[in-house]
């Protein structure tokens, strides 16, 4: 039984969801269908992942009805001034007429008329940011699609404290979540403290440290694994879950998809206060640091990471 977390708008969200970033279209159909059959009820998607149609196919193949699922997607940077249009594409891709949760993917509006529909770049190779567009106006459009009933909750992703404050000054509705890269080597303690003060729930993407992760073999993680007879993923996911953070582990491997759901819950129930304090300290003083800036991803995502 996967626990649920109550959001600041009163809605409930399953605390474990399947991540789909970096899942290849040909792999994600089976991954999603398998996950839902294995008991997942929460799927984390994005227009920018380029695989939403395949996620939609996986949902259909699972045979589980839409009303039983919690589906999140995200507004891509080139669409900040056209929220409803991007959302409509996402809804068509996924084959649904509403989302449970819609997020601003990055707090960086990109030029909608740039040299590329997804990653527009300037001649000098820097990201082509739409400096004239105000983030607060993107949030206003997010509020509008919520009021129209096309989405049930709205939130943000990859927002620093400064970016959250930027929209909160004019927001009518507070974001329910801020989805961040969160794991033992990138715990973002200060930002989480600020979010707690605003009742904004954290969601963790790359909770295992993403592909080729060194976290699974970290000496402290392995020592806790041995102490409790858990798997490394159980410790990494359980650590976040025990702290009230929604976890979105990505996998396209059926055995891992199944294991991560039960493992996250088992980990959160097994880890002691001392284990959590030990894991909290792993990234202290820059001893261990890892973030998407350093990941060997094929997308030019590093352009978006310096969000300050
Ligand atoms: P794969 O998708 O090939 O199964 P994150 O959620 O931090 O982004 O991590 C995703 C990466 O971790 C993927 O490379 C995924 O591989 C791998 N992974 C997912 N679950 C596990 C697990 N239980 N044990 C080891 N590696 C895993």
TrEMBL record:
Recite the UniProt keywords alphabetically. Oxidoreductase
Q: Ranges for the NADP-dependent oxidoreductase domain?
A: 16-282
Q: Which InterPro entries match?
A: AKR, Aldo/ket_reductase_CS, NAD(P)_OxRdtase_dom_sf, NADP_OxRdtase_dom
Q: What organism does the record attribute this protein to?
A: Leucocoprinus leucothites
What Gene3D superfamilies does the record point to?
Answer: NADP-dependent oxidoreductase domain
The feature of type site (Lowers pKa of active site Tyr) is located at 74
Please give the Gene Ontology molecular function terms for this protein: oxidoreductase activity, acting on the CH-OH group of donors, NAD or NADP as acceptor
Q: Does the keyword Lyase apply?
A: no
Name the UniProt record assigns to this protein: NADP-dependent oxidoreductase domain-containing protein
